[in-house]
Amino acid sequence: MNIFATIQKETAQLGQNIALIDGGDQITYEQLLASAARLSSEFSVNGVKRFHRVGLLSEDSIDYVCISLAILSIGGVIVPISPDQSKEEIQSVIEKIDLDFLIAESRLGHEGVQLPQELFRARSFTLLERAAGSPAEEYYALNPAFIRFSSGTTGASKGVVLSHEAIIERTAAADKGLRITSTDRVLWVLSMSFHFVVTILLFLRRGATIILCGKNLPHAIIEGILHQNGTFIYASPFHYSLLAGSADIPSDAFRNIRMAISTAMKLPDSTAEEFVLKFGMELTEAYGIIEVGLPFIRISDSAKKGSVGRALPDYQIRLRDQDENGVGDILIKGEGMLDAYFSPWQGKGDILTDGWFSTGDLGRIDEDGFLFIVGRKKDVINFVGMKIFSQEVESVINRHPSVEESRVYPVQHSRFGELPAAKLLLRAGVSRDEAVEEIRRFCYLHLSPYKVPKEFEIVDSLPRTASGKLKR
After folding, report:
1. 67, 95, 309, 409: which is deepest, by most CB within 10 A?
2. Inter-residue contact 239 to 267 (CB < 8 Å)
3. What is the reported pTM?
4. Where are the domains of the chain?
5. CA–CA distance, 307 with 288 (Å, rounded to integer)
6. Which CATH architecture group holds 380-458?
């Protein structure tokens, strides 16, 4: 099975439909698939083969989708890398996933062969071949298509491996809630580096039109709503908060929108209420997990605000170790589960227990089967849908010569979900007045901007557990 071949087959009668719109540029399905075919030939000439892990370092664009489809069509494995990550983080992905090739936008300054400009629409790209090692033998039995580098629920370096079969299963499973059709015009504002498999590939399978609105916010999404006749929005609470607070968008602007999905982070009650108050429309909250897919969607049930809905038909849920309030560890099983973790290698049998995946989240289920997520077992900060692992940030802060030790923790924020903050234990003799700004600058050099703590507090001690571990 191959997801590219699936898209070809399912859109065979939709060649003249517009597949993507990016500002003043657009491409039909016929043109999109032809462009992917030309790129796949070029990649093959340069040595890209089945099973090769190909990093894609690029901003969202029509070119991004064309390149992704080309890699998939020849059996290569996409490893998305966000250009918003720091150089150190980008290098970590390259090394941890042990890429065979890196395709990068030329403007980002990575070494490589310049690919022919005529193959692309608006950007230029380089291709770098690397001397990669051999992965675990089980890798070659998986028909792999995609590896999303992630620290996972344990905070350790991983890389979620998805096969073509898993992608086909999970896109079909998600569509039982989203019900995408060829007449849908999807307004897209999230990063494809973090959100691609369940969404972009599903939209393409159904022949929908994807309108890229991630740049120049909120004006691009307002343009999409008012002038591009959008019917479906897939965004985070941050984006809906922008829309509700914008004086440039009228209260009847959502009259043609059939569904507005809120995902990537918990939907704050204040944002949901502001949105309903202005537009008279309930947001549809969804719960997605890279290891699982999109198992929960709350279909506009105002009586169940705060929940992520019932499990979609192809998924099951159970709670482990419930407390007196019915709160327990959330376990999920169903279609399209991950196939492995790449680094260090773990097969599905070592990750799942009788088919169940432990999400690391805590939740409760009400009498009607609606899931309410109440927290996380692991110390993860969720900033606009992007996970920040406290230990990762602490490891950077602790490298600064002025720092003895640090503790990074979340601070609730009505728009962004959670913000990272840090308590600092300085080394003896360090000037407190100068230390914070030096440490802040150091963090910006070694971390993505969104991971840098927004507050630093100097303390005289950090509490520890009885066993000597840092108390969180």
Report:
1. 67
2. no
3. 0.86
4. 3-363, 380-458
5. 13
6. 2-Layer Sandwich (3.30)
